[in-house]
Amino acid sequence: MKAAVSLAVVVSALVGCAGDVDEPWFLDHDRIVAVRATPPGGASGERLVLDALIGTKGAPTHVATPEVATVVSPPSLAGVLAPAAEGWVVTAPDEATLAAARTELGLAAGAPVPVQVGVAYSAGTLFALKTVWLGEHRDNPVLEGMRIDGTEPGSDRVSVAREVDVPLEVAADPLAMKVNWLTSCGTMHDFDLPAAYLVVEPDDPTDGELAVVVRDRATGGVAWRVWSLSAP
Amino acid sequence: MTFARRVLLVAMLAMAPAGALAQPSPPPDQPEPRPAPTVTARGKVIDASGRPVIGATVTIEGTEIRALSDRTGSFTIDAPMGASLIIEAGGFDLAVWSVTGETLDDVVLLPAGAALETIEMSGEAPAKTPGAATLDRTELQRVPGTGGDIVKALTVMPGVVNLQIPLGYSGVVIRGASPQDSKVLIDDFEVPVLFHNIGFRAVVPADAIASLEFIPGGYDVAYGRASSGIVSLTTRGGSEDRSTQTEVSMIDGGLLAQGPLGKRTRYMLGLRRSTIDFILPSIIPESVDLSLTTVPSYWDEQLRIDHQLSGRWRLSLSSIGSDDTFELYTTKDDEAATKRFYNRTRFLRLTAAAKYYNGPWSANLALSGLLQQFVFEAGVFQYIDVRQPTVTPRAEVTRTYARLAGLTDAVWRFGGEASIGRNSVNLALPLEVREGEPPPPFDLEEVTEVYKGTIWVPDFTAWTALTASLDPRIRFTGGLRAEYFARPEELALQPRGELSIKVAQPWTVRLSAGAFRRPPEYQSENLYKNLKSERSMQTILGLQYEPREGVRVQSSVYYIDRTRLITHTMDNSLGNDGRGTTSGAEFLGTYRGGPWFAWLSYSYSHSTREDAPGQPERLFSFDQPHSVNAALSWKRGRWQLGGRWQLYSGLPYTPVMGSVFESDRNLYIPVYDEVNSARAPIHHQLDLRVDYTRGVGPVALTGFIDVQNVYMNESVVTYFYSYDYSEQIAFKSLPIIPSLGLRGVW
């Protein structure tokens, strides 16, 4: 067998991060940062409420319910999603419907059923897919062990020094959790590791936001926290 | 010397120009005539069938000055105009040739004792494949912009896709075919990788190579396992005089030693190690999130021992090896396993070969073994570890006939080869990306293909061919190659033929056509037992014009039909559903004379693919319609100067129309436009090279500077996208790439 995986993969990855474009950790950008279902999985009859953390260029982030949502798969469960007072809600159907869906998807009896939901924001310019799990209750993760510059952040406003490494930490097993640190103030390093660090360079904005998003690979759960950040 | 050889020698001496045989003393009252000017004479030694004679000794008569013919039969010797050269080789009668200029006619050696037979010889090499070209070591090293690298020098060849960076480990793109469709051979056997993974240097330095033969298509039945072209590198045999040379540049440094081991044995040993790994850590900015726990580095080695066992037997032992490794973390934290990348690529090929000559019979026998390993680990989920020991015995027998069934100068060859490989595979990788498929998002957690096991790949091949002249102007070759690929249980019959007609001096027309196969062996192809070989049918029409010594102009047009191409099926497995065509035209003009070496090539190509029946036709991913290469080199005394100008089309790419964010994976999934519906812009650049040699004691020291892209044309190689595909990033070539080096020979 001739293998063709090469250093080019690594080079590509590095080059991809090196251009004059917005980095994946940059918050001051029109984007969906994360979509959340609360809870991410539910037993029959449970209601899963959808919302998302939205980044907007030139404005602070905000949490919003989808403007439009639809079930992408499986089509047989299209009816589980409906608008409600609190936004778009997925309601886990009865066991008979779930059993039929399991058969459709080739899943084992009793297995949680993935339902992929498409959501749209910003007048339909931003799209995202989110998978919720039906037939089994699941919880979003809880953010623990948060430390910014060595101390636990006590409020939603954080101040850091400029031109120094500011360590950022969250307690998370990198094999079980996906971690993302984001900012609109400073340059983020190791943004996808539980222990990252931030440097506010001379050319960087001195006011903005800092956010951390943690995704649980096993449950599909999501948690985030956002701080106002300044570097006087 | 046998009586027959003496008769032949006397006869040839009698035919030589009188001036070369006798230098009458000037009358005492006349001034001493000026000595004949010394020229650097080039020639080629071939046998009656036109095949190169390797290791022939070329001696200036009456002196001890000698040269040896290399693997292509070529030799170079500094000799006075008019001098006689005596050419000797085991298994052949002696020949005498006269130095009439810098480019000599081909020297044709008769089989030993053949002078007693009635043999008619045209004295010309047989028709080569249309579009084929050969560069010897000194010419390879004169091509500016290559840093003396032989594989980079390939890009001057018409029909080779040119790009500012190499296209991959596995090869070159020839006449609109993927890299894996062509083979690069070293001493007749394939090597698994061509480039080191840093510095993009070939695994064999130019100093260890005698010549490079480029056959873009229509090649002989002795070559196989490829559906496009062949690049055949011949390692350099040791010379009669012992010498050592060393070269150091910013990329690597090496040592090459060669010479005799007794009267019948010669050796060549080369070793090279990267030096860029000593420099790299200091040039990476501190702000870059990178930990080089094993700085990318490489070794390679070349060994060749030739032994003249007797007049009939010549033995050789050769070895080519390479070892690349790196380990890095895309973070300062060198314990962050999710951001770790590790690679180890190494191989060792060992070949024992024997050549036998006995009158009209000759034979090439070889046994080659290959050990190779490829390991790549990305993050904690993706890895591949492939170990492939392969044994390849090979034999070819040749019989020449002065006349055979009304034909003249006939050469009948038959041969066979077995390739038995054992692949130990352990992998967990995302779905591989095949030619024409736009890249998926970069996700170190995606694992689609998982396999652990052993795959035996035994292939067996036999071939036969007859080359003969129908009359003095028409020569043909007809042959058949039969391959049995045991894993897919497929018998592949490949008839091939070539017709060469000298329409009028100095014009020659050539027509070549044939069938070619590439077995399923690339990337994960071996994991699918049902896959058959890819097929191509090639038709090539060529025209060659050689108005005088040193000047050659050749052009060709071709059409290639490709079927059973291996593509992804609807269920993401692999099948033989693809097809494609390539048509093109090539032009090559070369001049070799005095201090000058000039090269002008142009290629036009149009290559398309259809991934499955009913699918729309699309451009081939390496489709390059236009490519121009103009090179000029001048060498005199201590100085060698050269320039090369290139202009070529950018490659196609598939633009992105938008993307969808997959929140749980934290990835954007691109939405692509039609495959290869856009193209990178055209590129042009000028490269310059200067060499200066000076003696320092016993050492001939050469310093060189090779500068690529001297007028700093910053052009686009290809495009990348930002993480959410909202912004397109042009990946541009470096504005200027200087390469400095120092070589010492003693």
Main β sheet profile of chain B: 24 strands, antiparallel
Query: Which range does the strand content of chain A fall in?
Result: 35-45%
Structural class by SSE content of chain A:
mainly beta
Distance N terminus to C terminus of chain A? 58 Å
* Largest interface, C-beta closer than 8 angstroms, per-chain residues: A-B, 48 and 58 residues
How much is the average pLDDT of chain A? Answer: 89
Average residue pLDDT of chain B = 85
- How many E strands of chain A? 17
Could you describe the largest sheet of chain A, including whether it forms a barrel?
A: 5 strands, antiparallel
Helix content of chain A: under 10%
Distance between the termini of chain B: 35 Å
Structural class of chain B: mainly beta
In short:
The complex is a heterodimer of chains A (232) and B (746). Chain A has 232 residues and is mainly beta.
Topology (SSEs and partners):
The complex is a heterodimer of chains A (232) and B (746).
Chain A: H1 7-16, E1 31-38, E2 41-42, E3 47-56, E4 59-64, E5 68-73, E6 81-84, E7 87-91, H2 95-105, E8 113-121, E9 126-134, E10 147-148, E11 157-159, E12 166-169, E13 177-183, E14 187-189, E15 195-199, E16 207-216, E17 222-230
Parallel strand pairs in A: 2-9, 11-17
Antiparallel strand pairs in A: 1-3, 3-4, 3-7, 5-8, 6-7, 8-9, 10-12, 12-15, 13-16, 14-15, 16-17
Chain B: H1 3-15, H2 18-21, E1 38-47, E2 57-60, E3 66-68, E4 74-80, E5 84-88, E6 95-98, E7 107-109, E8 133-136, H3 137-140, H4 150-153, E9 183-186, E10 189-190, E11 209-215, E12 230-235, E13 243-249, E14 252-260, E15 265-274, H5 276-283, E16 291-308, E17 313-329, E18 340-358, E19 361-378, E20 382-387, E21 390-404, E22 407-429, E23 449-471, E24 474-485, E25 490-504, E26 507-518, E27 534-545, E28 551-568, E29 574-593, E30 596-610, E31 618-619, E32 626-636, E33 639-648, E34 652-653, E35 656-662, E36 667-672, E37 678-679, E38 683-696, E39 699-708, E40 716-721, E41 728-732, E42 737-745
Parallel strand pairs in B: 1-7, 9-12
Antiparallel strand pairs in B: 1-4, 2-3, 2-5, 5-6, 8-11, 9-10, 11-12, 13-14, 13-42, 14-15, 15-16, 16-17, 17-18, 18-19, 19-20, 19-21, 20-22, 21-22, 22-23, 23-24, 24-25, 25-26, 26-27, 27-28, 28-29, 29-30, 30-31, 30-32, 32-33, 33-38, 34-37, 35-36, 38-39, 39-42, 40-41
